Amino acid sequence: MNLYFRLILLFFKIKRNRDYQQLLDTIDIEFKALPTDCDINFHLTNSRYLAMMDLARTWMTERVGLLKHIMKRRWFPIVNATAITYIRDIKPLQKYTVSTRLVGWDHKYFYIEQKFHSERGLHAIAYVRGVFKR
To answer: What is the CATH number of domain 26-133?
Structure first.
């Protein structure tokens, strides 16, 4: 991940978080498409969607109270598969929200839905399958 500045800001936000939500709630985090996030077509580059999804999942684990337990047990959440559908582009300097929701789990994997949306509507929807490793 090459979003170190945003990751540092996220950790400051995590330190201040005292408002926890339920495990199955939808957790939102807002971003702005910086010029460095965009490609030659002047929209958010495809790889940046995945990087922002990483940040949003980290925020989700904090908001539901799991981050401290994951770190304490030295578990590593690993993305096993991702399917993403791009619907409309995100322009430079446009504000957008990533909504993250745990949709289920089984004996091995957890499943997460992530949506990118703004005042212009839905931009992308992704489904992530992950696993915790030690």
So the answer is: 3.10.129.10
Query: Of the candidates 65, 54, 56, 58, which has an alpha carbon nearest to the alpha carbon of residue 22?
Result: 65
C-alpha–C-alpha distance, residues 72 and 91, integer Å: 39
As a whole number of angstroms, the distance between CA 56 and CA 122 comes to 16
- Please give the single-letter amino acid code of residue 99: S
3-state secondary structure of 68: helix
This prediction's pTM: 0.87
Q: Is 14 exposed, middle or buried (0-12, 13-18, 19+ CB in 10 A)?
A: middle
Task: Provide the residue ranges of all domains of the chain, joining segments of one domain with +.
Answer: 26-133
Residue 122's CB is within 10 A of a number of other CB atoms, namely: 13
**Mean pLDDT for all residues in the chain:** 89
Neighbours of 69 (CB within 10 A): 10
Q: What is the pLDDT of residues 44-73, one digit of tens each?
A: 999 999 999 998 998 888 888 888 888 889
